[in-house]
Fold:
Amino acid sequence: MRLRAVVRRNIAKRVYRNPLVARFLGRQYHRSFYYSRDATWKNTSWFGIPLLKCPLDMWVYQEILFELKPAVIVETGTFRGGSACYMGALCDILGRGRIVTVDIEELAPDSQRHERVTYFTGSSIAEETLGRVRSFVGDDEPVLVVLDSDHTRDHVLQELRLYGELVTCGSYMIVEDSNINGHPVNPGIGPGPMEAIRAFLEETDRFVIDDTREKYFMSFNPRGYLKCVK
Structure:
């Protein structure tokens, strides 16, 4: 019996260490999590504030923030302000960092705010908005950017081009929700963030995909952790 157990354990190790198997199982779990009856990821919050993100990505965020200790974080797509408050709390722990978050709609009056966060209203790709963001960033660094607004390809591609200029070497531009349009969820809804990432990387050599940030096998931002190398 002991020999059989050892054999089974060794076989399991070989199977599950296979990158193709790990990727397949990760994608299947991703779909199950995303489409769960209880809409698990839509029922996620930070200290009671709703935020539509995968908890595994939020864990990666805190790892990145600890490593970089950014002076400024720029976020497009505020929603209810949950992710901005989350990053604000991490900055409190780090003892540094300012955040600006941009949304086309004003934050609801009953939404919770964080003292480290500045809230701008306007289109993220409008020149006026971008000018305000540039002024907010100033000469501080490192600068981290999170893109989580309109998820259509053309909009995200324009954000990548505009906000990529703000990212300092060694830091990141994170593209949220590149899992849609069949990567691996919500197939057939049209080109989105993943397609924008592909187009952007054909235009520039300043950024590379850091796939080590997908070490937990499931990310709502596949190929979306872009590291600035120049």
Helices lie at 2-16, 19-34, 55-68, 82-94, 127-137, 153-163, 193-203. Strands lie at 45-46, 49-50, 72-76, 98-103, 117-121, 143-147, 172-175, 207-209, 225-228. The mean pLDDT is 93.
